[in-house]
């Protein structure tokens, strides 16, 4: 049995987090080290390691998460001015938690291309 990810431990309430949204399929929390005035992480309750590990079976789950992202962006007040959604995949992107997650970043302008 692989070790539980930090996000699975948050889902199971083994460690605390600032939870901003939860439903049967996913959870959203404030990032512990925010990189923007609004920095929320959305992740599935099902452990999928990264975007490269998403399967056909996960397609409805990923669609659902994007609708949650849209809803949260409205609730967090960042929809009108815009925001960034990022999912770092594996080593070159700097993924540090091996549990698929989407960063919602807002409240400031972002550069393109990213660093
Ligand atoms: P990534 O580097 O894309 O894998 O993103 C992982 C993110 O999880 C980072 O932005 C971390 O700051 C964040 N993070 C790690 N541990 C926690 C935690 N216990 N609560 C909230 N955010 C966390």
Give the topology.
Elements: H1 6-11, E1 19-22, E2 26-30, E3 38-44, H2 59-75, E4 83-86, H3 90-93, E5 102-106
Antiparallel strand pairs: 1-2, 2-3, 3-5, 4-5
Adenosine monophosphate (AMP) is lined by residues 6, 17, 29, 31-33, 41, 88, 94-97.
Question: What would you say about this model in short?
Answer:
By secondary structure, this protein is of the alpha+beta class.
Polypeptide structure, described:
With 115 residues, the chain is of the alpha+beta class. 23% of the residues lie in helices and 22% in strands. It has 3 helices and 5 strands. A 5-stranded antiparallel beta sheet has the order 1-2-3-5-4, covered by helices on one side. A hairpin with a 7-residue loop joins strand 2 and strand 3. The radius of gyration is 14 Å and the shape is globular. The protein binds adenosine monophosphate (AMP). The site of adenosine monophosphate has 12 residues, from loops.
Please mark out the parts with pLDDT under 50 across 5 or more consecutive residues, or reply none. Answer: none
Record the strand order, biggest sheet: 1-2-3-5-4
Structural class: alpha+beta
Q: What's the oligomerization state? A: single chain
In which range does the helix fraction lie? 10-25%
Write down the overall mean pLDDT: 97
- Major sheet summary line: 5 strands, antiparallel
- How many separate helices? 3
**Chemical compounds bound to the protein:** adenosine monophosphate
Question: What sort of overall outline do the alpha carbons produce when their principal axes are compared?
Answer: globular
Order of helices and strands: HEEEHEHE
Strand content: 15-25%
Q: What's the count of strands?
A: 5
Rg, please?
14 Å
Query: Span between N and C termini?
Result: 36 Å
């Amino acid at each position: 049995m692989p070790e539980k990810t930090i996000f699975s431990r948050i889902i199971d309430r083994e460690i605390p987090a600032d939870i901003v949204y939860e439903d049967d399929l996913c959870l959203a929390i404030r990032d512990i080290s925010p990189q923007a005035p609004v920095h929320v992480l959305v992740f599935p309750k099902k452990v999928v390691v990264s975007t490269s590990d998403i399967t056909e079976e996960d397609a409805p789950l990923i669609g659902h998460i994007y609708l949650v992202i849209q809803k949260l962006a409205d609730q967090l007040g960042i929809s009108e001015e815009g925001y960034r959604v990022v999912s770092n995949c594996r080593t070159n992107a700097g993924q540090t938690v091996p549990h698929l997650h989407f960063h919602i970043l807002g409240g400031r302008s972002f550069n393109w291309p990213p660093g």
